[in-house]
Each structure stands twice: as structure tokens, then as C-alpha cells.
Write a structure and sequence with these properties.
This protein has 312 residues and is mostly helical. It has helices at 3-18, 26-51, 59-75, 80-102, 107-127, 129-132, 147-174, 176-186, 188-193, 198-224, 229-232, 235-248, 255-273, 278-292, 300-307, and strands spanning 138-139, 226-227. It has one domain (3-235). The chain is built from 15 helices and two strands.
Length: 312
């Protein structure tokens, strides 16, 4: 896809979400906010999973830690937006330190290790009840506003996080870092032989995959007003984010956000119409889409062009 077409498509997508308060009710606003939030999470995962080819399942750990750091800061009187910034920096440092250890693993071993990080974080937060409230969770200071104003505010917050993650993705894609990450994806040993510092590049990608997850987690805690370990460190969330990125097109700029939008909308449609079988139907549809579109939804246009001999 040509750069101008790509940037125009991204702007149109963001504009569609940003204008929902003009014509939609709170249910649609909530769905738009969830699309933006999961779009940011999937775009973040793309740095390590898409560009670098490392199957990370740490998203829920970064999201949950961001939620808890942000919530604890707010409970100690720190302003909300400053708390989000502290949560982002704290989780980025955590990811960089953790990356120096866990990125020594490859393939399935790395995937299993990243899942263990989520479970380990959940257990620590659950056990450290004097700080985190343990299994009872934490209440977060509420924003005094009407439900409509609150929904609009957090929609724009999530949109801002999504837009920032897309801008960073474009910068990385056009930079030496993006080139190095793609080389590691193709052949890590060969990349090291031509002078790419694979360890530093992988740590940078892993840290970037944590930054926007932490911000989204901190904002989500302020949005809901309550967090607990089970909800904040969901393995299901980390799997969903990976599926969203693959569904849209892993390793592309806009694919993960597109996959997140498609996944959330399909989930809402199936939940509303097939309440008993919605999970099973959604799973089958997602598997079929990934099976027949291995390059993601973004590859659909190319496939149509080939099928019609270039006429599409």
C-alpha cells in the first residue's frame, strides 16, 4: 500500500472513531473506546511479535502492571495524567530489564516464558495484599462527571494512545531500528553476522511493546474505578491481542489496529445474536479468516487484485 493511501486510511479510521460522540449512544461509544484500546495493544504487540517475529504473550502483564502502578499513584494523591506517565515509565523500565533476561530464549521457549511473566505478576500482585489489596482489588479515585462525559473523555484518551502507537510504528518502520527488527525476523544469526546488535534491538522492540500497554492499562484503571488481579492480568486478553494483530496483518503498520477493530466488532455482533454460542462461533470465524488469509485482512486487496488479473 502506498504511503499516502496508508496514512489517509489511518486518518479516516481515527476520524470515524473520534466522531462517534456526535451521533451514537453510550454503548457505541464504549465499543469505539474498546476498539481504540485493543488497537493500541495490538499495535504495541506488533513491535516484538510482528516486526521481530518473537511470539510474545506478555501484553497482559504490561497492561496489568500499568493499571496497578497508575492506580497506586492516584490513591497517593498524584494527579491522574501524571500517574499514567509514571506507570508508562515504570513498566517500560521493567520491560527493558526483563527483556535482557527473557529475550535470551527463542521460539516456543520465549512464548512459554512470556506467559509465565503474566502469571508471575498476577501471583505477586495477589499475594502483596498490604500494597495492592490482594484478591480484593483496589478502588481508584473516580472522576466526577456524567456517564456521557466520562465515556467521551476515555474514548479520546484511548484514541490518543492508539494514534501515538501508530505514529511510533510509522517512525520505527522507516528507521534503522525497523530494518534491523525485520532482519532479525528473517534470520537472527545472519543479522548478527552483518553487524546488527540483535540483543539491543530486541530489547528496544520488547520495551516498545510495553509502553502503550502500560498507558492503556493505567487509563483503563481510571476509567473503570476498580481493578483486581484476575481482571488486570487476563491470559485471555494477551491471546486476543495476538490474534487481533495476526488477523489484521502482523508486521504491517495498520494491520494490528484493523484486526482489533474487526475482532471487537465481530465479538459484539456474535455476543448480541448468539449469546450461548458466541465464543465458539467467533473462534471458528477467526480460525477460518487466519487460515484463508495468512497475511491478514490487509492482504485481501492484493489477493483480489491477483484474482482479477490486476483490475481490482
Amino acid at each position: 500500500m502506498k504511503p499516502l493511501t496508508l496514512y489517509g486510511s489511518i486518518l479516516v479510521g481515527l476520524a470515524v472513531l473520534a466522531t462517534t460522540p456526535l451521533y451514537a449512544d453510550n454503548y457505541v461509544l464504549r465499543t469505539a473506546a474498546m476498539v481504540a484500546m485493543y488497537g493500541a495493544l495490538a499495535t504495541s504487540w506488533n513491535f516484538i511479535g510482528g516486526f521481530t517475529g518473537y511470539p510474545s504473550f506478555s501484553t497482559a502483564a504490561f497492561f496489568g502492571l500499568g493499571a496497578y502502578v497508575g492506580a497506586l499513584c492516584q490513591r497517593h494523591g498524584i494527579p491522574m495524567v501524571v500517574s499514567w506517565g509514571i506507570a508508562t515509565v515504570a513498566v517500560a523500565v521493567f520491560a527493558a530489564l526483563l527483556g535482557g533476561i527473557i529475550l535470551r530464549l527463542r521460539g516456543h521457549y520465549f512464548a512459554i516464558g512470556s506467559i509465565a511473566v503474566v502469571e508471575l505478576c498476577r501471583l505477586i500482585v495477589s499475594s502483596w495484599s498490604s500494597l495492592t489489596g490482594g484478591g480484593d482489588g483496589l478502588n481508584v479515585p473516580l472522576i466526577h462527571a456524567s456517564p456521557e462525559e466520562l465515556m467521551r473523555f476515555f474514548l479520546y484518551v484511548m484514541l490518543g494512545i492508539l494514534a501515538a502507537s501508530l505514529v511510533v510504528t510509522i517512525i520505527v518502520d522507516r528507521s534503522r531500528l525497523g530494518f534491523g527488527l525485520r532482519c532479525i525476523h528473517q534470520n537472527e544469526d545472519a543479522a548478527a553476522m552483518v553487524g546488527i546488535n540483535t540483543t539491543a534491538y530486541k530489547i528496544a522492540a520488547y520495551t516498545l511493546s510495553a509502553v502503550f500497554c502500560a498507558t492503556a492499562g493505567a487509563a483503563y484503571a481510571s476509567w473503570t474505578g476498580y481493578i483486581d488481579p484476575t481482571d488486570s492480568f487476563q491470559i485471555v486478553m494477551t491471546v486476543k491481542v495476538t490474534v487481533m494483530a495476526i488477523l489484521g496483518g502482523a508486521g504491517t503498520i495498520a494491520g494490528p489496529a484493523l484486526g482489533a477493530a474487526a475482532f471487537v466488532l465481530l465479538e459484539e455482533v456474535f455476543w448480541a445474536n448468539f449469546i450461548d454460542w458466541n465464543r465458539a462461533i467467533l473462534g471458528v470465524v477467526i480460525v477460518l479468516l487466519i487460515f484463508f488469509l495468512p497475511g491478514g485482512l490487509l492482504s485481501l486487496r492484493t489477493r483480489l487484485r491477483r484474482a482479477t488479473g490486476g483490475a481490482a
